[in-house]
Design goal:
This protein has about 425 residues and is mostly helical. The chain contains 16 helices and 8 strands.
């Protein structure tokens, strides 16, 4: 059967775009074509928004100022100037720019929010965002300035500047490209803000969601590397098969632990080095000591690997669920949904969901790093590594230090990761 998510070898941009397809678009490994139904839904939302303007209704960011200035009325003839001035006051970010693929993920997240069909953005803006995704470029967006609780206003304002050809872009290499060159390459005109285009661009969680999308992909690959390296260490250390028996996952049925156990079994199938004996197969004998009986269990970095990696897998899965829902959501305010209400005012720009999930993912990655560091420490310690050379040195020990420096570096990186694992979601401050 043909893939319903593809048209002419392009991914179909729909409001429910799968996260794996979103990663492909952000990283430039796929092209996008806009789903006709999504286009029609956006046209309908734009018409509903235009109707509220013609009826001179009180709508935040259309007939009022922004933030604490929402109590100031703005006449209809100044709507476009209002949108432009919104970009002017928000484009105050500082710091290094987001990397190329993260900036593209931000573009995609903003586009998907608009494609939910309640933002009222113009068709010209939508087409320009699609064209940018299908190019080799990314907007240059500073990493510092957003507060998160009120959405990613500052970074998205810098996206708007790029779309207006008033700021440079990035190539995959990180090199900057003048806006004029980019628009020549795109073959389209820079954005001229219309009606609500400014607020539709900046209002929402697209920077944090785009970042979370790529972190989701990285964490998924990282977790499998953790399982692969753990299986390899089990081979090197002749670890006991008993500790990874599926019975443990059956009586403690966390999905992640079950998945980790199954994957480790796949990776070590047919192993001739693993210890297949079970401790309870041995019987007590007079004067027999535990060390002589060989009943010592493997250390935690091996014995508890399914539990530790499994817990991380469960957190990664939750983070993916939250990120997917956020990616497929309208993170905007106000919205112009189908129905009797001309507009609805609320707080979908609030970033709490994605922030809490991202903090949890940070701790899960730290957990995997902690396990890896302890595994490195064990396999390099001649007292604990089962007779292997000290620091796995291949030369004369003492004269050669082997992987001593690598083990120190692993510990140093783990220490730095711990300092960065303080929950960012708890730091949100009202402005």
């Amino acid at each position: 059967m043909p893939d319903a998510s593809r048209v002419d070898d392009s991914l179909l941009l729909r409001p429910d775009l799968a996260p794996e397809d979103a990663v492909a678009l952000a990283t430039g490994s796929a092209r996008a074509s806009l789903c006709p139904d999504a286009r029609e839904a956006c046209r309908a939302a734009h018409s509903r928004m235009a109707k509220t303007i013609s009826e001179e209704r009180l709508v935040y960011g259309l007939t009022t100022g922004f933030g604490p200035l929402a109590n100031r009325l703005v006449p209809g003839e100044d709507i476009v100037r209002l949108q432009q001035n919104l970009i002017h006051h928000l484009a105050s970010g500082v710091g290094d720019p987001f990397e190329w693929k993260t900036a593209r993920a931000i573009v995609l997240a903003r586009l998907l929010s608009i494609l939910q069909g309640v933002s009222g953005a113009s068709e010209a803006l939508i087409d320009l965002l699609v064209a940018l995704l299908n190019s080799r470029f990314a907007p240059m967006i500073p990493t510092r300035g957003t507060v998160g609780a009120s959405g990613d206003l500052t970074p998205l304002a810098h996206l708007a500047l790029c779309l207006q050809a008033r700021a440079p872009f990035l190539e995959r290499s990180g090199a900057t490209v003048p806006a004029a060159q980019v628009f020549d390459d795109l073959g389209c005109a820079p954005l001229s803000l219309r009606a609500r285009d400014g607020l539709a661009l900046v209002n929402g969680t697209s920077a944090m969601t785009g970042t979370a999308l790529l972190n989701m992909d990285r964490a998924t690959r990282l977790s499998d590397w953790s399982l692969i390296l753990t299986a390899g260490l089990g081979e090197v250390m002749a670890a006991r098969e008993e500790a990874w028996d599926p019975a443990f996952a059956k009586v403690r049925p966390h999905p992640g632990q079950s998945a980790a156990t199954e994957r480790l079994a796949q990776l070590t199938a047919g192993s001739m080095r693993r210890d297949r004996g079970r401790i309870a197969d041995r019987r007590l004998a007079p004067g027999l000591r535990a060390t002589e009986a060989g009943i010592a269990q493997d250390a935690y970095p091996l014995r508890c690997a399914p539990q530790v990696i499994g817990a991380a897998l469960d957190t990664i899965a939750w983070h993916k669920d939250v990120t997917t829902r956020e990616l497929q959501s309208a993170t905007d305010n106000p919205i112009f949904p189908p129905g009797a209400a001309p507009a609805l005012h609320g707080g979908n720009f609030m970033g709490s969901q994605i922030a809490l999930a991202s903090d949890a993912l940070s701790v899960a990655v730290l957990t995997l790093a902690g396990l890896a560091e302890r595994q490195v420490a064990r396999v390099t310690d001649e007292r604990l590594n089962g007779g292997l050379p000290a620091f796995l040195s291949g030369g004369e020990i003492g004269l050669n230090s082997g992987l001593m420096g690598a083990q120190v570096t692993a510990t140093a990186i783990l220490a730095e990761m711990r300092t960065r694992a303080v929950p960012a979601s708890a730091q949100s401050i009202s402005t």
